[in-house]
């Protein structure tokens, strides 16, 4: 039997760690690894058209499965293209292993063709970033990288010169059992005791939830009922906490709606559950704040804390809920539920009047119809920009749907690549890319990846021929829009020319039928919807600080806009409020 080389050993260890696909673009320094994949039936090489897509696809796969995913780039420019998608994975806490293949080891540091220094380039967007310069470092270095990615929920980068990859693997190398899942983290008794006392002493408690509440929906609802607390959420917490929630008061932040802002400011104790919510301008500075997070480095970096609790949300609430004294006064909760319902009723009219006749089509209407027609377990990938607004307001979570976006990194062009990763996991699950024309055209070449692998991704293209969110930023800064207009082709015709299903929609009455036909189509499909470029989600009064820079927003208001089916849930919750 032929002796293994380093590349083959590398691939075998990825398989042991549960990796089923390696996304990338082939290239000379990467060839030994790609050949090793060809020889191994347990893992597939997924050929994309741009390495940035490879990183985004791996990040989406990791977010949906919770397991390690992997991507690769050849030396120099190849692996350099990975960096934007890896930043997104790191900030989304997605466990991703990136292979950055390298120039010949004998030429490093001598200005060789395509030379870069990946061990330096990826330092900021990874938890672990090292180079295999000697075969004897295998397999320990790769095993360490994998455990960093899984254990710290983020990115590990391994640089591997092509010549080293072809060398024989070391004999009697040490391969140990790999960590492939994270443990639960329970807070210390001292923190639990302090938190119990603070809750018992507080009259008005609000919970504000982020993505760290994943898997803890039942525990959050039980806790909210015990202390009669309104429950708000950040954008990344929406899919985990909004559904089946009789305490829901909406979302805070620039894209927020409802009474979440009021609930977080009118309480006397705010508990942040699993959120690294970046917009500190929307957080109060005159109430007591407790933060619960599994990542201790997140504690207190957004606001002054009265108590920091290191632990995951589910375990913390399991310890906490039985110990707090049940509250009987629903006054604060009912007040916030009524404010929430009133706020939603106040904005919904402007976005329902004559929308079925409006040309160009209201994007709100597109998102609303999409929400109604999409599967109950669909995965939505959402482009940064105005598509974030429409997804936040109109896509209804139910505990089975997933909503993936570049919500922490804020990159353009993420939706199509993330849809690729999501669809490879399960070809029978509906995956919908909510793409803006700006984001779609940035990485449009990988529409061909859908065709090549016959991935049944459905792209709903919000085509307003502009960079809508950038126009909004310019507007509120008192600047005329400039450089934001796109001259677009008929994207449906391009889809058909590429061998996919494509349809263009210019009138509202065509929309539902077009979406149904696309959803019924067995392969990739694109629905090019011409939408109103003037549909900017803004309130009557707005200051530049509300929008510019997003994370630097100094506003204490949220953008106004439609809310889709959320108003129905608010009305239902309001029925539980006692009448005087």
Measured distance between first and last alpha carbons: 84 Å
Give the proportion of residues in helices. Answer: 25-40%
Specify Rg, calculated over alpha carbons.
25 Å
Shape: globular
Low-confidence stretches: 537-558
- Strand order within the widest sheet? 10-9-8-7-11-12-13
Percentage of β-strand residues: 15-25%
Please tell me the overall pLDDT: 90
Write down how many β-strands occur, each being a DSSP E stretch of 2 or more residues: 19
Helix segment tally: 23
Structural class by SSE content: alpha/beta
Taking the sheet with the most strands, its summary is: 7 strands, mixed
Comma- or semicolon-separated keywords:
six-stranded parallel β-sheet; seven-stranded mixed β-sheet; 23 helices; alpha/beta; 580 residues
Structure description:
With 580 residues, the protein is an alpha/beta fold. The chain is built from 23 helices and 19 strands. The strands form three sheets. It has a seven-stranded mixed sheet. A six-stranded parallel sheet has the order 2-1-3-4-6-5, sandwiched between helices. A six-stranded parallel sheet has the order 15-14-16-17-19-18, with helices on both faces. Helix 1 packs across helix 2, helix 3 packs parallel to helix 5 and helix 14 runs antiparallel to helix 23. The longest helix has 18 residues. The termini are far apart. About 4% of the residues have low confidence.
